């Protein structure tokens, strides 16, 4: 018994003695340093503001900013203003700028290298040799959420065998009602190369309906209308008309309302007593565009106009994506960092460029630039003065400021991960966050010696 008790006392003492010699770093309760449960509620940040409901930009100011964006930002295209014919050299230029095969090896979903002949076939499917010297401008509209691709292929490709998230052929996505100009068709006849307001890329032909330019753009201006203010909204399921059944609408999408629809007249098998009757674009069997009624449940998070642009609303809108999976180029039916920012602002009627590279330098916004001559202290001070809704850019990424804790800036962003260095540690702790998260900005590290703050290229302030 005595020997057993002695052995037990040794065993109980052993971990404590080891811990005393090698203190373990305590992990933050929510993995992210400085993050508390309270920080995951929009109310925490809104309550900290002195004038949370003050209007930052009026609708007239937003319209003026959007007009500047259309006129001054080279990444934004005015589809209505395009001429009746488009030069073939311009079309080839758009395609060649995007559809360039990387020189490095690419891997498929299987983890195996993609054969070089398969890549050549994909490039050949772009049919650049078939682009005419000049062509009539063909207008269309997207009828369902659809991927924009670098090449006319569904093949997902990655830079490493273990990667499954960043598909290098994925570019972006378009949503129902987005107007496009059809510029080219793939050799296999399954893809269009299209120009949208913010991007030029390949889209599956089945998601585009061609129609009259005036009718397409008039639909986008019709009133009354609804704006999706939730992360997403979905039309009611209907077997009677699959083309308008369970259609996913993203934050900021605007759809016309058929306000005079008779109360006793069914829409796709249902009376609209618990729904909004909206009008959606559909694609006919011959690829032509028409519009049909659909039901949007009254439970959907929608508004009868764009939301007032206030700091409180910016915070509320951003938190509607909290926890959503990160989707490079809008893959996984979600969105990436720049899509996250632009869709939040789209719910206020604010137009932003698609990619961070264009957002960060847009001349139409209130930009605070940084370069190598700006010190760490100057950058930190700018962040401490930042307001909710300010967009902070580093190469390839954007974060939205939501407030401060003890004067230290905090952001919400859609990120694959972050790194930080615990006090007294030599190595970084890398967090595979892979979604929309709240993080303090100052602890973030780009590498073992460079704080992320020191890589900030600009802060875009969507305010006067």
UniProtKB/TrEMBL annotation:
UniProt KW Protein transport keyword: no
Signal peptide start-end: 1-26
InterPro entries per record: NLP_P60_dom, P60_peptidase_YkfC, Papain-like_cys_pep_sf, SH3b1_dom
Family annotation (Pfam families): NLPC_P60, SH3_6
All copies of domain NlpC/P60, residue ranges: 308-440
Keywords, sorted A to Z: Hydrolase, Protease, Signal, Thiol protease
Family: Belongs to the peptidase C40 family.
UniProt-recorded name of the protein: SH3 domain-containing protein
Species: Luteimonas padinae
